[in-house]
């Protein structure tokens, strides 16, 4: 088995192999099949949080370039579903927050851009406040998204 950094491969082949490894890693992060770490924000929603507010927050963060996100231990991917139950907000059918449990969203990306996306006039922070929900945004040099989804199986 040859190593990508092996000196017996020509430089161009090493660069192609390394590029493929990097691309595979990026795809795995976007698909949610591997944990991720990097700069980002931790957003806490406290109060009568709704699935709509959580979805709006996730969409704003995605639009601002979030590369990976998790909500109270549930990985957010393209197919993630947000619904309300009588007692909680559900992410993919799992309760992630409610009146006594804040919703914590960890998002990896440019922390300044992510934070700003939520504080624009008429944005998530302003809308949440009008509904009595408190939003706390903490910028961090290192945010870890540990939650993963199973890798799809080929049949």
Integer average pLDDT: 85
* Oligomer type: single chain
Based on helices, strands and strand pairing, what is the structural class?
alpha+beta
Number of distinct helices: 4
Largest β sheet strand count, sense and barrel closure = 5 strands, antiparallel
H/E element sequence: HEHEEEEEEHHE
Cα gyration radius (Å)? 18 Å
How far from one another are the termini?
27 Å
Write the layout of secondary structure elements.
Elements: H1 11-31, E1 36-46, H2 51-63, E2 68-71, E3 74-76, E4 82-84, E5 89-91, E6 94-97, E7 103-108, H3 111-119, H4 124-130, E8 134-145
Antiparallel strand pairs: 1-7, 1-8, 2-3, 2-7, 4-5, 5-6
Helix pairs in contact: 2-3
Brief overview:
The chain is α+β, with helices and mostly antiparallel strands and 155 residues long. Helices cover 32% and strands 30% of the residues. The chain has helices spanning 11-31, 51-63, 111-119, 124-130; strands at residues 36-46, 68-71, 74-76, 82-84, 89-91, 94-97, 103-108, 134-145.
How is this structure best described in words?
- This protein is of the alpha+beta class.
- It has helices spanning 11-31, 51-63, 111-119, 124-130; strands at residues 36-46, 68-71, 74-76, 82-84, 89-91, 94-97, 103-108, 134-145.
- 32% of the residues lie in helices and 30% in strands.
- It has a five-stranded antiparallel sheet. A three-stranded antiparallel sheet has the order 4-5-6, with helices on one face.
- It is globular and about 65 Å long.
């Amino acid at each position: 088995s040859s190593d990508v950094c092996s000196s017996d491969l020509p430089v161009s082949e090493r660069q192609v192999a390394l590029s493929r490894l990097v691309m595979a890693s990026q795809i795995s992060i976007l698909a949610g099949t591997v944990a991720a770490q990097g700069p980002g924000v931790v957003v806490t929603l406290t109060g009568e949080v709704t699935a709509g507010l959580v979805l709006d927050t996730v969409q704003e963060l995605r639009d601002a370039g979030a590369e990976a996100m998790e909500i109270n231990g549930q990985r957010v991917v393209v197919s993630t579903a947000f619904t309300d139950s009588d007692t909680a907000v559900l992410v993919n059918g799992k309760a992630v927050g409610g009146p006594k449990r804040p919703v914590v969203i960890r998002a990896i990306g440019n922390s300044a851009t992510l934070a700003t996306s939520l504080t624009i006039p008429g944005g998530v922070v302003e809308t949440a406040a009008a509904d009595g929900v408190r939003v706390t945004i903490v910028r961090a040099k290192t945010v870890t998204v540990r939650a993963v989804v199973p890798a799809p199986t080929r049949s």
